[in-house]
Design goal:
Aspartate Aminotransferase, domain 1; 5-stranded antiparallel β-sheet; alpha+beta
Amino acid sequence: MGTINHGYTYGAHPVAAAAALATLDIIERENIPARAAREGHYFLERLHAMKRFRIVGDVRGVGLMAGIELVADRRTRTAFASGAAELSRVHRESYRRGAMIRLSGPNIILSPALTIERAQLDQLCDALEGAFEVFEA
């Protein structure tokens, strides 16, 4: 039985390699890691302020990657069942306000682009706060 050699059209492709090098240059020139850390600090401050809502059990994150744990009962930290109507309502209300969020069970996963602007972070946080306010009304 013979060997079947296989390769990918994009593997070691000169154009793909040039694009990767250009991306690395931009990351270094614009100091994207430091920017993400700075904006991430602001982002997490805004998210931690949402603990005032009874549905928010916890907020965790690093840099611009964050998660919001949604709970049915904050005192006991009882999670919502997967697919609960309350989760769908928060998702729908966030989207209606301009924020596309990702639910993973009872958690909201947020990982915006590392180049997100402060005004866009505010828009995202304002949309989440609005969704939580509707939920609590």
